[in-house]
Amino acid sequence: MKTYKYIYQLMAYRPFLYALNGLLWLLIHLLPLLPGIILQSFFDQLSGHSSTVISTTGLLALLAAIALSRIVIIYFGGLTDILHRFSISTIIRRNLFAHLLHKPSATTQAGEVIIHFREDAEQAESAVSWVLDVIGKFLFAIGAFVVLLNISVSMTLLVFIPLVVIVMIANKVSYKVEENRERSKEASTAVANTIGEFTSIAQSVNLANAEPYVIEKITALNEQRKQRMLKDRVLTQALDAIFSNTVSLGTGLILLLAASAIRNGTFTIGDLSLFIYYLAFITEFTDFFGMFLAHYRQTAVSFSRMEKLFQKGMEKELVEHHSLSELPAEQKREVEPLETLTLHNLSYVYPGTEKGFRNIELTIDRGSLTVITGVIGSGKSTLLKALAGVLPYEGEIRWNGRAVTDASAFFTPPASAYTPQIPTVFQQSLQENIQLGVYEEENTLDRSLHIAVLQDDVHRKGTQLSGGQKQRTAIARMFAREAELYLMDDIGSALDIETEQKMWERIAHEFLHKKTMIIASHSQECLRRADQIVVMKDGQIVDIIKQ
Amino acid sequence: MSDLYVWAVLFMVVSLATQGLLIAVQYFGESVGWGATNRLRITLLRHFFSLDLAQRKKYSTGELIERIDGDLNALQNFFSQFVIKLVGNALLMIGILVALFMIDWRIGSGLTIFTIGALFMIDRIRASAIPYANQARQINGQFYGFITERLQGADEIRSNGASRYTLKQFIQWIAKYYPALKRAEIRNYSMWMTSIAVFTIGNIFSLSIGAYLYKSGAISLGSVFLIVQFTELMMVPIEQIRREMEDLQKADASILRIQELLAHKSSQPSVSTKPFPEGPCDIVFKNVSLYYNEQTPALRDVSFAVKRNTTLAIIGQSGSGKTTLTNVLLRFYLPTAGSICINETNIESFALQDMREKIGIVTQDVHLFAGTLRENLTFYNSSITDEDLIETMTALRVLPWFHGLTNGLDTTIEGLGRNVSAGEAQLIAMIRVFLKRPEIIVLDEATARMDPETEHIVKQAIQALVSERTCLIIAHRLETIQHADAILILESGKVVEYGAFQALAADCSSMLTDLLQKGGVSLENV
């Protein structure tokens, strides 16, 4: 989608708020036209060039009144702008979050995610908000230009045409600035990511006695950032210099031209003050406009970055209008009870590798326990991930003979529930971690705690979870959900034998031959209860043993 | 008239020279700033790596990036700009005031008072905004922490139908964040509003006093114009000085946070300089206890000995303290009571680096990072050659696995080892450890996530490698302990059974026998 379309969609998100905001900011930008004219009248009156009806004191009072009203408008403009900006970036963040929660993961690295949520959303937010500022400042410039033309056509043109040319040239250079900015940003991200990565695995760094090497690596990244930053900052400063020189240059020109005009009486000292006063504002507009254009180009980069997370044609979801205070009504999902699950010609290979699985044919009956086993890299975990809708696949998965079209949406409760090999435990209570929104009235909590042998741990506070406890938390999380099909990836590997035995007895008692289960495992406990053992090698099924 | 042109040209030359100077100043300022903060960043990292495990656990990854990188960036601005800008703007301000005094003392003194008042007012408003900004930043940080954490677990959330619940939590975060953001932002606006008010007052003051003096004939119209221009010009240094004060404040807060990190002192004894013994090692744990806090002991009065070239297997339920035991041996925690000796020397007196070079450990969770397989194996140590790596892999008999990798040592590993299976990660960890040729080996559930076939091969290899080393094996699975010389069973941090394997296995009342029977492992297999 084109950048302006995104921005248009965002502008249309809160139209009334945006219109109100626009009105207020127009006033904020246009009000400074008046003090210039007041200053002009003030000087003309002092020098006796004109005789306005208002006295000098009256003019000063007017100056105060204008400032006061501008302050009041800024207060309200501030309120609307804060709310509007927040709405814009938050709707993007919300849509991104909802999207990433629903889609199979593939590649979402922590550093990357933060860039989308923080910088890209902010970029879009500013683009929308600055449109108002550009309009406001532009109208100011037009107004000022007209007023100045009325005073002296030749002087206005002589002063402003060179200014516009200089600013336009400077804008051309700003491409170079962006390029440098991008490169220094990359270098910064590299430093932050590497620091994050190695501090999070500090223990391994210690164990490998690798502190000096890791530090050497980060020192090199630091140096790279320093060089790029220097380049970036110096060029920016040089551009700034050009812009501020245009003001000085303009002032110089005005003084030169005004001197003779004042002498022959066609130009008053009031006019001079007005010229100098407006000059600053008009250069500021050209400066701001250049910045806005650069920002717009960067916003395009931001949108294309975020767009990559969406499927082709679905990217408009990024700017879809949703409430930020509530969710749409929940639709109760009905799933046909599972009779047979068929995998037909199923394949997935990790991009750029040969790892994965190919041409899998498998049938799973209602109420059976299927164990997938095989050596490292045989593809059993990958297959389970595809079944859980975590990875995309080619081929078909059929639920009672009908092919599933959207696996990541389909393979969720009440159709299926899943425990990954390495579970994620969130920073909240153990109970909340298990429930994740399944409420107590559903009464599955006790059952799942019992199965996962966690009854004693759930009330314990303040202790860190061991590897085994984490794994059992994930198991309890899965069994707290009613599902037709339970998918488990190697769930006993972090457990001691006694706990594992207990757990399997309980799973068997509660679910065996009642629910369909597929497990990737080599555990004896598990294999001896299996109805069907699937042996995988190099991504293919080499044997199916029914027992 | 020609005089006028000279002045005009001079004016332009001066402004060009000023800009040139500014660029030079920017370059040197930035250069000094980055140099200093880069060095500080490395100091902080070194310090962090030296801290105890418990101290490190206080910080999440996001927080650490913020402290080691974010806070230092705030300092960078400060280092490179503060003095130059503060001095420059103060001089400009004084220059303007002196010029005004030269026109008329009344204007000079009036504007001096105004300037002081303006600086004071603007600074007051700025200071009052800080707590709100901090609060907003804090909530914002937590909000991003939430987002990152949930997205890392997105697969589990979605496949267990908790997306809606998580989205609801997101909306709750919005509701919590917005009021804080609004309070902070409106205070930014109030700063702007204040400066408009202040400068309008200044303008009105200079205009009225100028008009008065002009009418009374004390000054010319040109001087009135000059006064008004100077008052306008005064905005620049006042605004800049305000910004520098803001930077100072930010730098101050950053320094405080950095100091807090530096204030954590490693509890490692400072006089640990003895070289680690060469050759085979005996390990003795004598009445070792470890309390994380007063109520919960992680280890209670643990005593045992591992003779050179023998293997001790430690078993116990998850959470019984097995991993803690290895952490104490590697001095990630110092025991609250008791002592650990290697070849009759307390381990606290060994040089830490030296000790960790000689003790190899494969942990339950393997830590991989974004880079190539080679980098993950060597941790950027360029003195380790590819031949060394191949040699170690040959010894571990994992070459078939290695040859299956299309890109060999250049295989890309994604951050956190996302594209590597848990079993493979354990293989990599195993290679890492044996590269060091350690005297003591600790295997903490080191093969649990491998498939039986690989596990079998690797175990045979390990068997050969540990036969001439002292070895501690932590295991859930009984097969793993079959070759152990001695067994230690832990329960809630206490030793409940300890003895030679054969003796315990022969004793029908021992817990080991009970476990072996439950586990279905008959003694014939042993």
Automatic annotation (TrEMBL), chain A:
Source organism (scientific name): Fictibacillus macauensis ZFHKF-1
Pfam families: ABC_membrane, ABC_tran
PROSITE patterns from the UniProt entry: ABC_TM1F (PS50929), ABC_TRANSPORTER_2 (PS50893)
MF (Gene Ontology): ABC-type transporter activity; ATP binding; ATP hydrolysis activity
Main location: membrane
Membrane topology label: Multi-pass membrane protein
Gene3D superfamilies documented for this protein: ABC transporter type 1, transmembrane domain (1.20.1560.10), P-loop containing nucleotide triphosphate hydrolases (3.40.50.300)
A GO cellular-component term linked to this record: plasma membrane
Subcellular location: Cell membrane
Identification of the protein by name: ABC transporter ATP-binding protein
Sorted UniProt keywords: ATP-binding, Membrane, Nucleotide-binding, Transmembrane, Transmembrane helix
Domain ABC transporter: 341-544
InterPro entries per record: AAA+_ATPase, ABC1_TM_dom, ABC1_TM_sf, ABC_transporter-like_ATP-bd, P-loop_NTPase, Type_1_exporter
Residues spanning the membrane: 16-39, 59-83, 127-149, 155-175, 234-262, 274-296
Domain ABC transmembrane type-1: 19-298
